[in-house]
TrEMBL record:
<comment type="similarity">
    <text>Belongs to the protein kinase superfamily. Ser/Thr protein kinase family.</text>
</comment>
<feature type="domain" description="Protein kinase">
    <location>
        <begin position="514"/>
        <end position="789"/>
    </location>
</feature>
<keyword id="KW-0245">EGF-like domain</keyword>
<keyword id="KW-1015">Disulfide bond</keyword>
<keyword id="KW-0472">Membrane</keyword>
<keyword id="KW-0808">Transferase</keyword>
<keyword id="KW-0325">Glycoprotein</keyword>
<dbReference type="InterPro" id="IPR011009">
    <property type="entry name" value="Kinase-like_dom_sf"/>
</dbReference>
<keyword id="KW-0418">Kinase</keyword>
<dbReference type="InterPro" id="IPR001480">
    <property type="entry name" value="Bulb-type_lectin_dom"/>
</dbReference>
<feature type="transmembrane region" description="Helical">
    <location>
        <begin position="457"/>
        <end position="481"/>
    </location>
</feature>
<protein>
    <recommendedName>
        <fullName>Receptor-like serine/threonine-protein kinase</fullName>
        <ecNumber>2.7.11.1</ecNumber>
    </recommendedName>
</protein>
<dbReference type="Pfam" id="PF00069">
    <property type="entry name" value="Pkinase"/>
</dbReference>
<keyword id="KW-0430">Lectin</keyword>
<feature type="domain" description="Bulb-type lectin">
    <location>
        <begin position="27"/>
        <end position="155"/>
    </location>
</feature>
<keyword id="KW-1133">Transmembrane helix</keyword>
<keyword id="KW-0723">Serine/threonine-protein kinase</keyword>
Amino acid sequence: MHEMAFAIPYSSSFLSLLLFSLLLLSSTNAQTYKNISLGSSFTTQDKNPFWVSPSGEFAFGFQNVEPDGFLLAIWFDKIPDKTIVWSANRNNLVREGSKVEFTADGQLILQDSNGETKWKANILAGARVSYAAMLDTGNFVVASSDSAHEWESFDEPTDTILPMQTFVRGDTLLARHTAVNYSTGRFLFTLRADGNLVLYKTLLNSEVAGTPYWSTGTKGYGDQVIINQTGSMYLTASNGSILQMLFTSNLSTTNFYQRATLDYDGVFRYYVYPKLRHARQPETWSSLPNVMPLNICVNLKEDLGSGACGLNSYCAYDLGENIPTCHCPNGYSFFNADDVQRGCKRDFSPQDCGEETSEIDLFDFVEIESSDWVGNDFEYLIKDSEDTCKQACLADCFCAAIVYKSPNCFKKRYPLSNGLKDPSVLTKSFVKISKEITTLRTGGGESKKNNDSSPSLILIGSILLGSSVLLNFLFTFFAVVRSTNRETNTKAADQHQGMNLQRFPYEKLNKVTNGFKETLGRGAAGTVFKGILTLDGMEKHVAVKRLDNMVTKNDAEFQAEVNAIGRTNHRNVVQLLGFCNEAQHRLLVYELMTNGSLESFLFGESRLNWNRRMQIALGTARGLLYLHEECSNSIIHCDIKPQNILLDDSFTARISDFGLAKILKIDRIQTTTAIRGTKGYVAPEWFRHMPVTGKVDVYSYGILLLELVCGRKNFEAEAEDQNRMVLADWAYDCYSETKLHLLVENDEEAMNDMKRVEKYVMTAIWCIQEDPSLRPTMREVIKILEGTLGVSPPPDPSS
């Protein structure tokens, strides 16, 4: 969308021309200085409290941004709204009578009306300062007699990058707080020291990077961000090659003002404004349609925090306008209408926890379609209707909302976090509210208080509250309902703590597999048999895995793993239907994949074609992303290999065999455990007693991806050329020597698709880096494979 998939090296002649052009431009800028001499100053009370550039397009001085608050800033001075692009004292406004002075000894100082220094340019001691100047590029400089810049505003950007401004490693942009509040906000954009260009939400009330929600994935390679004179913004490597194209306006800076700004809503946008007025051109800033990220509501979810909007509010994105908006559910209102990202508060008293059934009749729900509240789950209900879920939440004073996707729902604690409303969301939510303040039960706009006197509601409420007989009846009724629910939950526990799984008696599985006679496969953890079960009145072919080596395994651990795997529901993960945990018998019952494992279609004579293999690569990646990030508990599979990728009747990849999987709690991202996995696919950290994360699956996936590309095993002892024995080593050699065609020389389809071969091999090499921190996440892998994220040249995996 806004990146280029591969680095594009410049020729040496092009680099020379570019360097010459830049030197010429610098020379031109030097000649257009309107020098500011030592000892110059101005105050907020002067008629023109600023210094302008030679063309008058930019000004440096005071902007009145509050009734009595002034910002020392740089702005576009020839347009009506005087758009600010840099400021010195964003968190410390000064008052009427304040002064800017370029002192006789070459210091640039901002003083308040009492003479106290509020800001000072970081000019090194001993610098031989001669003059200052506001340049036509929007850069304010303090220079020596030979025009060397001792200090410049371009080196200390606030929230904007301008054409010809170079944004280098370590540079940071910090969004403003709101549209009219210029103090430091909640979002940060930086080119990290490792070369990755990243957007973060900051930690609360700080300028410290917190949750990342967008990046270029150029770790190790990104060097500079540049906006050139033709309106293109791109990230380059240290050799000058373009790594990723970020924005392209195709508009000359001669005719259009241009800027790239991290806005207060966390979206990084590129703006243009016509210098010459034209009837068909709006006299305003226009944003290019490709913003970063494309939908912050979907991209930004925090483990600790509120998401794109504040607590108890939800984010909705207008793709047409590229604008995220924050909303309160009905019954809630913003803490501060001028700062909606601060979140929402309840406009009613919370439910009393004094009695088990108290106040149930005083609360109801507002429904929000296509919405979710990520995090703060405390209970998961299985195979329940909407009404049952609502009743469970009404009866629980700790429950603030439920998120429902038939037939399951999550209970949510207060405050609600990571609120999201988007057409891509497959769940809907019900937020608990008091009946006294709203009659709206659908939609999900901003809170609206009930202005209707609702006489019938008041009458009913009076009768209910005034009749002790009826109250006693209701309390008895809800007690019976609660007791019934407990009995139901007890029965559900027999279906493994409410999971959508069946507990099968051993004798039944022995019967449906005909005494475990027809073997489908055999592995280290056990043997898989074919069977036929009657489920929901229909016969269904199943795969029954008998865990031969699980007899001594801790029962609680076995049940915990089955419980977690039973929650999985994804088209690229094999569905677990049930289990048996009876005496020494431990069996798992899966849906049967008619085409068996990928292994038989990858290395045998009936090898799948190139496009089918690439679809399997993408499907497997999506399944792993689901296990790592989208389950209620993250799952590290630990044994990704062709034998554990099954294919359904349409050859869709389905990850199977969780016999070695590790389940991570929501608040953990790593674990330590004994070595697991299969030789050739095992990540190096297993052997180094390092904490294990989802990156072990990324490593195994990288090996699998190479096998899918090349159509051969990761190790071939009988290879004629010993340099080709280990696939990973041979693949890197072919890549570094620009001989990738050797990997697929027997595959005509692949030979005709060498760009994709190159991209997939580069991705695989990144996945198998020995240092886990260098490997991409599965989310990044998918973006690369889908073409929405570029891939940088990978280093030697063992370097």
